[in-house]
């Protein structure tokens, strides 16, 4: 946790009590005691500092002071990705949130198992927790938007083009296409398929919406590895 995130109500109050997961990290990793000052941020707002006033063993009483520092600019990349295996969802959400991706759309695909859509990993509470963990890692305060599109064809034909706007439209597809652009000069929408890739019918529908197949080379990567590699290639840090 590189940033202690507060809810707006916690920052607005004269004092706030930090308990649970955040307090455990403050105690075991940051070794916070009364008088300690820690870097903090407010969800949906900016950065500041918290000062520890008291520790009752169950939680910390803190006070928050805002500073004139804004969150980092978001990565100009929308991610549209076939719903991965449930155990991969948490890692993926944390990774792309830490990188600054602010729009994530999970879609269906022929190779996505129906059971994935009933996974508890997709609960609103779990999704929000993973996004917060990603913000803490990436030192950011602006939550991404996560949406779900369980019907592939209606989404691709009726909504994807409008969602993509005038930016680059890229389809990550193993074994075909041009090399992925480096240091893109405009925003992009990146569509990533399931393990094994999209079937030909799905590729054809995406191509009809103006998406061009791109590749990272002959090696076949796991989905979460491919997403991070592609995003880093499109928008290198710094």
TrEMBL record:
Pfam families: Methyltrans_RNA
Molecular-function annotations in GO: rRNA (uridine-N3-)-methyltransferase activity
Catalytic activity annotation: uridine(1498) in 16S rRNA + S-adenosyl-L-methionine = N(3)-methyluridine(1498) in 16S rRNA + S-adenosyl-L-homocysteine + H(+)
The protein's name in its UniProt record: Ribosomal RNA small subunit methyltransferase E
Gene3D superfamilies according to UniProt: 3.40.1280.10
Keywords: Cytoplasm, Methyltransferase, rRNA processing, S-adenosyl-L-methionine, Transferase
Gene Ontology biological process terms in this record: rRNA base methylation
Family: Belongs to the RNA methyltransferase RsmE family.
Role played: Specifically methylates the N3 position of the uracil ring of uridine 1498 (m3U1498) in 16S rRNA. Acts on the fully assembled 30S ribosomal subunit.
Major subcellular site: cytoplasm
Enzyme nomenclature, EC number: 2.1.1.193
CDD domains the record matches: RsmE-like (cd18084)
Entry annotated with the keyword Transferase: yes
SUPFAM superfamilies: alpha/beta knot (SSF75217)
Matching InterPro entries: Alpha/beta_knot_MTases (IPR029028), RsmE (IPR006700), RsmE_MTase_dom (IPR046886), tRNA_m1G_MTases_N (IPR029026)
Record's GO cellular component terms: cytoplasm
Compartment(s) of residence: Cytoplasm
Nuclease in keyword set: no
Source organism: Gammaproteobacteria bacterium LSUCC0057
Class in the EC hierarchy, top level: transferase
Residue ranges of every copy of the Ribosomal RNA small subunit methyltransferase E methyltransferase domain listed in the record: 72-234
């Amino acid at each position: 946790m590189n940033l202690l995130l507060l809810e707006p109500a916690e920052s607005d109050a004269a004092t706030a009590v930090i308990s649970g997961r955040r307090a455990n990290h403050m105690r075991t990793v940051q070794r916070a005691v009364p008088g300690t000052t820690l870097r903090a941020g407010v969800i949906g707002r900016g950065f500041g500092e918290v000062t520890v006033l008291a520790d009752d063993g169950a939680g910390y009483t803190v006070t928050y002071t805002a500073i004139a520092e804004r969150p980092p600019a978001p990565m100009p990349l929308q991610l549209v990705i076939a719903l991965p295996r449930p155990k991969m969802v948490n890692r993926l959400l944390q990774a792309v949130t830490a990188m600054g991706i602010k729009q994530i759309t999970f879609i269906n695909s022929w190779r996505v198992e129906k059971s994935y859509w009933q996974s508890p990993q997709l609960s609103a509470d779990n999704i929000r927790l993973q996004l917060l963990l990603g913000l803490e890692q990436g030192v950011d305060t602006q939550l991404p938007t996560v949406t779900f599109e369980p019907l592939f064809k209606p989404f691709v034909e009726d909504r994807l083009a409008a969602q993509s706007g005038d930016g680059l439209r890229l389809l990550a597809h193993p074994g075909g296409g041009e090399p992925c652009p480096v240091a893109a000069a405009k925003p992009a929408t990146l569509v990533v398929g399931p393990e094994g890739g999209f079937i030909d019918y799905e590729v054809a529908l995406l191509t009809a919406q103006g998406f061009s197949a791109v590749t990272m080379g002959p090696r076949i990567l796991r989905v979460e590895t491919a997403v991070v590699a592609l995003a880093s290639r499109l928008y290198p840090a710094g």
